[in-house]
Amino acid sequence: MQSHLPRAARNYLEQLRRELSFLSDAERTEILAHTREQISRLPGKGRRKSELLRRLGEPAAVAAGFTPTEPTVLKVSSGRQFLTRILAWPIFALSVLTAALLVLGSQFVALAEPLSFGYVDGTIFGTLAELELSLGSAVMIFAFIPVLFSLLPLVVHGIPGLVLQVIGALATTAACVLGLASLGAFLLPLAVLLWAQVFTPLLMMRGSMASPGPAWLICASAALLAAIGYTTYRGLQGFTGNAWLILVPAAALAALALLLPLRRRWSHIALIATGLLVMVAGFIAALPTTYEAPLLWPWLAGAMSFAGGHLALAAGMWHERARNLLALL
Questions:
Q1: How many Cα atoms sit within 13 Å of 108 on the Cβ side?
Q2: What pLDDT, in 10s, does the model give residues 80-139?
């Protein structure tokens, strides 16, 4: 037994055991038993550390010669739960931020211009705009729909969870259409994310190595560029400050959007971070002490960039997880 060995031998085996931590218990036990047998056959029985190192080698070098033969257990129980978790929390965070902005932000900044999309009376959009005006501040209640439904998939699984996801996405989309003349437009990025939360697991789990193909990423990049271009154009209208204050952040977002098809994780993270910074900068520009610019346009540009970067990052994380899983088989 190990307790009958000299202290130097016991220390050597303990160090070797730590170096073999990447192996399974059975593999580690087998290697230690074999090493213990080797030590018992040494002339000095392992009484001297120098003899152990000379005969057997450094524990780290010995451990480096072994590779695991038994697959390790994944900490994530299923791919669907993994995708749901990495999608849900950022959506929830953006939902809370948007709800807080719509409920409290109007006290400090100009959120949007009334009927900023130019709806005409007598059209369906004009009717929706009139309905929004008649509801008044009650429209802001819809801002809490994504807050509620973004986290439900974490606690409700299976078909009931999928049904709730669809209901949340439909309700948020309805709120966007109802209030698209002004405040409802703030919910547009959340509607995109909630629908992505519904369809992404279905698409990504078609195969164990599923990943967004070039066509998907190119379409996402083009859609994001269109959103950035439109919001930049609308933001420049009536802006009293230097136009470069809008054009420079827009150019940064556009450059990162162009990198989406390249599947570079750093560019996805940079797109998320830049989107958040644009949202903060838009809030500052909307303050009465600065430019009193409508917050809607920088918020949409930043939030849509956040959504695009987050979805691309989540897809990359799923692909990496699937690849690591297959490597263990």
A1: 14
A2: 677 788 889 999 999 999 888 877 776 666 666 654 444 334 444 445 455 555 554 555
Residue 70 lies in a domain: no
> How many angstroms separate the CA atoms of 320 and 83, rounded?
12
Q: What is the 3-state secondary structure (H, E, C) of 155-174?
A: HCCHHHHHHHHHHHHHHHHH
Would you say 168 and 73 are in contact if contact means Cβ atoms under 8 Å apart? no
Domain extent at residue 48? 2-64
**Higher-scoring residue by pLDDT: 184, 78:** 184
Whether 312 is in a domain gets the answer yes
Which residue, of 36, 64, 92, is where some domain finishes? Answer: 64
pLDDT digits (tens, 9 = 90+) for 270-297: 999 999 999 999 999 988 889 888 888 9
pTM of the full predicted structure?
0.69
Number of domains making up the chain: 3
Contacts of range 4-10, beta carbons closer than 8 Å, 24 or more positions apart? 5/36, 5/39, 5/40, 5/45, 5/46, 6/45, 6/46, 6/47, 8/46, 8/47, 8/48, 8/49, 8/52, 9/36, 9/39, 9/45, 9/46, 9/47, 9/52
